[in-house]
Amino acid sequence: MSLLDTKNLMQGISLDCVIFGFHNNDLRVLLLELKNIKLCALPGGFIANDEDVDLAASRVLQNRTGMTDIFLQQFYLFGKVSRNVPGHADRLVREKLIGKDLYSFFNRRYVTIGYYALVEYTKVNPLPDEISVKCDWYNINDLPGLILDHREIILQAHETLKSHLNFKPIGIKLLPAKFTLRDIQSLYETILSKKLDRRNFRRKILGFNILNALQERRTGLAQRPAQLYKFNLSQYNRALHEGLNQGW
Amino acid sequence: MSLLDTKNLMQGISLDCVIFGFHNNDLRVLLLELKNIKLCALPGGFIANDEDVDLAASRVLQNRTGMTDIFLQQFYLFGKVSRNVPGHADRLVREKLIGKDLYSFFNRRYVTIGYYALVEYTKVNPLPDEISVKCDWYNINDLPGLILDHREIILQAHETLKSHLNFKPIGIKLLPAKFTLRDIQSLYETILSKKLDRRNFRRKILGFNILNALQERRTGLAQRPAQLYKFNLSQYNRALHEGLNQGW
DNA sequence: TCAAAAGTGTTGAGGTTACACCCATGC
DNA sequence: GCATGGGTGTAACCTCAACACTTTTGA
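The joint structure predicted for all components is written out below.
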């Protein structure tokens, strides 16, 4: 637990990252399987006194995925008193997840800042932290038991992601560099948990002007080869900034 | 400063409320004019250890406006280190805004949770708190000097409010009980800082089905009397919950 | 030649934009 | 009667949903 020099950390505030990946048409989240406890937890951490909160989130993310330059966004502060379970810190000490010296740091009321991140599944090499035995992906529709209110945090992150689909381009961090329209449609369908009309989807997504067709096709399948695309980075960023559907 | 029993407060976390009101076609925010310092500040406060964060925000709001049942929404956690100005706590003590006993509570790094609220201007009786001489409304386009990053917080609240206009019904807390379509259009125009076509606006807002026409008109003006409306509470709440423009 | 998915186009409904005209009132 | 803003209608346009057919490949 050398990383936890608690004197330099803000007290009573934590952050938790809901890290989304996309693989085999599954929307997955990266979770830690805790030592000695049959429960999972979101990758999270604390904020150093001299550290921007966004930077702390980015550090946590980097430690668990090995990746930098990740789409990362604060989405909610969970501030209910009831999210703190009496005896939680005791349990952490009893199960030897943390040392007794950290008991007083953990045994207090916490609010936590929820971040969600979008990462390219294949590029991630999940790394467990000091209090977990495994770091792995779980299907969002088949989540394991989770500590505290982490399940609620994940569900709320998912809702936020869904609503962001309407205003922001999404996918540059969730898809490989080259992809077909079917790939990106599957991503949207997975996030939204519903089927979209293939022809209308193509028209709409191409209309956003954030894709560039490549001089390449995906061959090897017993079907007509599909056009490959990549994101147009500058257009994508412009769309991120300006939004896609302005009302009023 | 009897209210600040700092032992019971979370440390390093504050909250600030951007309270919007609408009057004379102005979008205004409620600000405190600080004692001895020629700067204003957002109404804000701290969170008791046994208090939900939302409840703390609601308490602050009630103390400044005398109102309960206010639309109040968390919109961002401001977590940059740079928002803490060195010497700020010293200044508060020097200018006698706080006692020396509170110095150590204030002299630390803070993150603050931004809330925005919508209130009916005429119903508010602004009350200064212990560290201010006045609590008053300021036009959002003509803000006075503000401490710390409070100006940025206000601007971001305004951006959030603008974007919420596209998905959520707004107005029930900003307008009097009876209002004309012109009134609500002015509200929208003011929030968005742009003119809307009167005829199209009427069609659109009526199409939301959140208004009920009254058997009353606004008379006394040298023009055709305008139909008065009130919000249909149940429809309004349904729209709040379901959103107005669902994409995808 | 067959299965499978890619690629393309059209039509109708509904919503949005940009307009012009008449109406009711106080002065 | 006249200035002022309220109330209504409509045509052009755009977007979106629903849908059918042809194309290209590997097996």
